[in-house]
Amino acid sequence: MPLIMPSPPPPDARAEDIFFRTRVAFGARAFPSTMRYSIRISGLKDGKWAGRTYDAHEEWPEASVFVDSISEEEAANPVRPSSGFNFFGIGVTPDKGLELPGILGDPKLAITYAFGLALSPGPKAASDPTDTLKTVGTVRATSRYYDVRLAGEERIDGYPCFHLTLAPLGNPGRYRLRDLWVDESNYQTRRLVTDGNFTAKETGSGKWTVSYKQLGDAWYLSDELSQGSVADGAGTFDHVDVQFFNVVADPHDNLDFGISSATKDAELVEPPDTLR
């Protein structure tokens, strides 16, 4: 008797349409030509958080990133202990006697990074990408890198959001998105989960929760928190948290730090940000 394989479930047309609109909204994001910001990479080890803070800037739309490889803590004389930080609303102060290790390398990370979500607006989408969802009769082929499902509606930071789950249809190492929380009013991504992060430098870290924040008219990365342990030359950490803050648009000062890592292996970077 021949083995009969079950048919795959049909696409969730409403979820696919929300995903399409989400990608259009992401692709329509605009940023200042130059952004200066701080990046803090912290690790949790033996119940204590510690890390380093770096000055960085990005030129947009080229996504050219420059980072000062000497952290604020290294530049301080004497070395200044961390004053603590905040993640997901909880204030955390590392042990002031704990050494501040350089975790993962110099963070050449774009504050505009999109995890492959950005899609250039098409003629129909550009006219009104956030119109009210009505009857959806077709599934747009542009979203078929994933099987997308609508898991429900949840609040993120007080905002009603669609919760989408995503399963890659192939090449899961490249198509890393697993969950999206999309603002129902404008289809902007407020939070996502990615399976693997900084894949140009393998950390074996599994899933990360990534948050975006709106500052003025622009949306920026604000936090990337590992859900599991992260291994690095500095050791194995129970969690690693990457925070972006102190954003200054078009600062009109000399942002080319003139400092670079001795080798590319010392730099923390993301792979090309594209689904194409």
Structural classification: mainly beta
- CATH domain class name: Mainly Beta
Average pLDDT score: 80
Q: Given the structure, what is the number of helices? A: 3
Query: What low-confidence regions span 5 or more consecutive residues with pLDDT below 50?
Result: 81-98, 123-127, 134-139
CATH fold-level topology: outer membrane lipoprotein receptor (LolB), chain A
Strand order of the largest sheet: 3-2-1-15-12-11-10-9-8-7
The share of residues in helices is under 10%
Order of helices and strands: HEEEHEEEHEEEEEEEEEE
Total number of distinct structural domains: 1
Shape: globular
- Based on CA atoms alone, the radius of gyration comes out at 20 Å
Largest pleated sheet: 10 strands, antiparallel
- The number of strands is 16
Strand content: 35-45%
* Assigned CATH architecture: Clam
Instruction: State the end-to-end CA separation.
Output: 42 Å
Notable traits:
outer membrane lipoprotein receptor (LolB), chain A, 10-stranded antiparallel beta sheet, two-stranded antiparallel ribbon, 3 helices
Written account of the structure:
With 276 residues, the protein is mainly beta. The chain has a single domain (13-251), classed as Clam (outer membrane lipoprotein receptor (LolB), chain A). It contains three helices and 16 strands. The protein has helices spanning 13-27, 72-75, 123-127; strands at 34-45, 48-59, 64-67, 85-87, 90-92, 106-107, 146-156, 159-168, 177-183, 189-195, 207-215, 218-226, 230-232, 235-237, 239-249, 267-268. The strands form four sheets. The protein has a ten-stranded antiparallel β-sheet with strand order 3-2-1-15-12-11-10-9-8-7. Strand 8 (159-168) and strand 9 form a beta hairpin. It is globular and about 70 Å long.
